[in-house]
Structure formats: C-alpha cells, structure tokens
Amino acid sequence: MLDTGTQRKTLINMIKIISLLALKIFQNNTSFCQAPQNHIKGQVVGEAQQPLFAATVLLVDRENKAVTNSVADSNGRFQISYNVKGSYALVVSYTGYTTYKTETFVLANKDFDAVQ
To answer: Average pLDDT for residues 58-75, to the nearest whole number?
Structure first.
C-alpha cells in the first residue's frame, strides 16, 4: 500500500500525462479540421491614386451579408483570409466616398491591385 504523499504524487503525475496527451490530440485534430487559407488582397486608392488609410473592405455573400472584413493599412493595402467556398463580392467604403461593390466572383486567391 502506498502512503498518502506517494499516492498524491502519482495522481499529479497521471493528471500531467493525461493533460499533455489531451493537448496533443487536440492540436492534431484542429490541424486536420482547418481548411487551407486563401487570400484576397488589393489596395484602396482615391481619385488621385492616393492610398485610403482605414478604408473598410467587406467580403459579402449573395445576400449581401458580411462574411469577413479588413481595414486598409497606411498604404491603402488590405488582405482578407478565408476558407469558405462560394460566390462573393467586395464592398469598399470610406468616409467622403461613394461605397464601391465589385462584381460577384468565385473565391480563389485573388489580387485586385488598386480598387478605386
């Protein structure tokens, strides 16, 4: 029969081993469940080709519901990462400008260059 101190140490070690095993299983399962990431990127510019910092770029579905979004950086560049399939459009908005919506497209790695 083990004394109380030894039983406690054995129990703690078993909990550590089970916790590490569970963590490893979780890490492996999440990597199998994740779809590959695709990217849509581009640059939002104004009429004089100046970058529009903090322009909002939405990826919307056929019902015009936002799926994900991005905000343009100081160079007007944006990137949206996604792992969904289907047909979508981009909606770009910036204070003082008319909201712009692209034609519907099928998701694939896509570079819009300058969105004006």
So the answer is: 93
First vs last C-alpha separation in the chain: 79
Average pLDDT, the chain: 75
Domain parsing of the chain, residue ranges: 1-34, 38-115
> How many Cα atoms within 13 Å fall on the side-chain side of residue 41?
8
Say whether 29 sits in a helix, a strand or coil.
helix
Spatial separation of the C-alpha atoms in residues 82 and 70, rounded to whole Å: 11
- For residue 102, give the amino acid letter: T
What is the number of other CB atoms lying within 10 angstroms of the CB of residue 111? 10
Q: For residue 19, what pLDDT is reported? A: 46
The domain defined by 38-115 folds into Immunoglobulin-like (2.60.40)
Residue 21 has pLDDT above 70, yes or no: no
What burial letters (b/e) apply to 31-54, b meaning 16+ CB within 10 Å? eeeeeeeeebbbbbbeeeeebbee
